[in-house]
Amino acid sequence: MEITTIHLHTRFQVGPVDPRIFGGFLEHMGRAVYEGVYDPQSRHADPDGFRSDVLAALRRLDMTAMRYPGGNFASGYRWLDGIGPRDRRPTVRELAWQSREPNRFGTDEYIRLCRIMGWTPMITVNLGTGTPEEARNWVEYCNCPPGTRYADLRAAGGHPEPHGIKLWCLGNEMDGPWQLGHVPADQYAIRAQQAAKMMKDVDRTIELVACGSCTTGLPTYMEWDRQVLEHISDLADYVSLHRYVGNRDHDTADYLAVTNSIDRQIEEMDAACRFVQARRRRVKRTYLCFDEWNVWYKNHQTDGEGQFAPHLIEEVYNLEDALVAAGFLNSFIRHADVVKIANIAQIVNVIAPLLTRGDELLIQSIFYAFEMFSRRRNGISLRPIVDGPTYEGKTQGRAAFVDASAILDAGRLHVFATNRSLDAAAPLCVTLADRTIAGLESAEILTGSDPKAANSFEQPDVIRSEPFAGVRVKDGAAELALPPLSVAALTFRLF
Ligand code: AHR
User: Fold this and answer.
1) Which residues of the chain have pLDDT under 70?
2) What angle do CA 221, 222, 225 make, to 5 degrees?
3) Taking Cα atoms as reference points, which of 331, 367, 361 lies closest to residue 346?
4) Is the distance from CB of 336 to CB of 454 less than 8 angstroms?
5) Which of 188, 293, 295, 472 could pair covalently with 321 via S-S, beta carbons 3.0-4.6 A apart?
6) What is the CATH number of the domain that holds 41?
7) Which of 169, 209, 292, 295 to mutate to test the pocket of ligand 1 (most atoms within 8 A of CB)?
8) Are residues 298 and 407 in the same domain?
């Protein structure tokens, strides 16, 4: 393959990378909460009932904003069911996933987990079956000092200090006909506007995320966003977008080029925000919150059949999925000026980088991709000019073989590069026009020969990141050869 050059200049800055793009998502779904992060029966349970092995693995990902309690679950959730003494909490019939929800884990357990893990809490209120007033009450419960009804409930439960939750989502995927309480855009917008006003009346410091289009595939795509933004962009700080992708046609080259449409989705949503901003002559800009993203297409088990902690969408991830996960992160970094929050969906067992089986824990391929980026996330995104060979994806159009992003971290430069070729190594040169690359600080690679290769409980180390020795720094630039089907994360020292 011909050489690819990634041209960079420290003045060509996209913007600071918001650490919150390395967020996660914990939903009451399947075995994400129970048998996932919370399992008092496990031999790994800590005094809070949290699984210490799961938390130790998650700590390596250093996630930031942790969205909770859903997802579709949120649209039928009564938050009052999940507080107070555990033995008095009701077990309810849960409709989003047809499961049995005992409410053993609720707001206070979630906050405790966030504090232990250093996560930023991010709560989705119920705007499906719930009322704006219930949403406002939840803010009072979490954020107000004792002295009024809901704050006193929290204090009575042993938490006199407010939880201080700054980030709130105004419902989940309300444009989706599958959503409990789904309504047309204007009705959602009014509901969200009412909730937002009352929530901000309770605590003026909170930030709000309005529901944008949850897929590009619905007929309401963009028109939903326009209407919602027209109503609510004065009160909401962010609009959400979601994306799940998959290799349904068994065409790896095309699948890896999906970054084209992730870039486009971000740019289209930003265009909707800018359109409404211009129409309303507003100075304030609405930013993007990509609060669900991942690969999800192999496992469609979404019916819990009335069970507690059923096995739902326990997707197994392979090498090509890890490269696509890296593609999402590259795209978020390249759009650091507009994407301020992003949450991988989810964190354990349900479409997740981790799987539990009894007391065992398995690390999946996408875990390593996330970890390689998360370790190098601080700094300012630089606009990479990627000059090299391209190919034509069947549905995704023309894509460069090398997908890349870069972050300037004071005297260091982080570069992420994926080789999408199935069979050819990609010779690569990284240059920084106005600075000298002085040396290599660290380099990791994730690769393999079979795009379908995956870890299993029996063979847990098939796909994992490894130190990468093939980087040479010469005459102020870096040279390397990316193996076929690989993603590399590189950190350079600069002069
Ligand atoms: O992450 C699984 C589900 O996918 C979420 O509950 C929902 O928001 C989306 O459709």
Assistant:
1) none
2) 110
3) 367
4) no
5) 295
6) 3.20.20.80
7) 292
8) no
Is 291's C-beta closer than 6 angstroms to any atom of ligand 1?
no
Concerning whether 392 is annotated as a catalytic residue, the answer is: no
Q: What pLDDT shows up at residue 57?
A: 98
What's the structural domain count of the chain? Answer: 2
For residues 173 and 147, state if they share a domain. yes
| pLDDT value, residue 402 | 98
Distance CA 355, CA 163 (A): 30
Q: Are residues 388 and 454 in the same domain?
A: yes
**Do 30 and 99 fall within a single domain?**
yes
Q: Pull the structure tokens for residue 64.
A: 């930031």
Q: Given the structure tokens 């439960």, which residue do they identify?
A: 157
Q: Is 172 in the pocket of ligand 1 (CB under 6 A)?
A: yes
Q: Specify the pLDDT at position 47.
A: 97
Q: What is the pLDDT of residues 90-126, one digit of tens each?
A: 999 999 999 999 999 999 999 999 999 999 999 999 9
Can you tell me which atom of ligand 1 is nearest the CA of 176?
A: 10
Strand, helix or coil at 20?
A: helix
- Of the residues 292, 315, 320, 371, only one is catalytic, namely 292
- Kindly report the protein residue whose alpha carbon is nearest to atom 6 of ligand 1: 71
445-459 exposure pattern, b = at least 16 Cβ within 10 A, e = fewer: bbbbeebebbbeeee
State both tokens at 191: 């509901």
Strands 412-419 and 385-387: unpaired
CATH code of the domain containing 475: 2.60.40.1180
Ligand 1: distance of its center to the CA of 168 in Å?
A: 17
Q: Phi first, then psi: give them for residue 445, nearest 5 degrees.
A: -140, 145
Strands 477-482 and 426-432 turn out to be: antiparallel
Nearest CA to ligand 1 atom 4: 71
Are the C-beta atoms of residues 303 and 97 closer than 8 Å to each other? yes
Cβ(173) – ligand 1 distance below 6 Å: yes
Helix, strand and coil percent figures for the chain, each rounded to 5: 30, 30, 45
Q: Does 468 lie in the same domain as 348?
A: no
Same domain for 99 and 237, yes or no, is: yes
Whether 479 is a known active-site residue: answer no
Of 328, 362, 377, the one marking the end of a domain is 377
Distance (Å, rounded) from C-alpha 495 to C-alpha 476?
Answer: 9
Co-location of 337 and 477 in the same domain: no
> Residue 233: what pLDDT?
82
Same domain, 332 and 463: no
Question: Which residue owns the Cα nearest ligand 1 atom 2?
Answer: 71
- The CB of 315 under 6 Å from ligand 1? The reply is no
Select from 344, 377, 410 the last residue of a domain: 377
Boundaries of domain holding 271:
18-377
**Is the pTM for the entire model greater than 0.85?**
yes
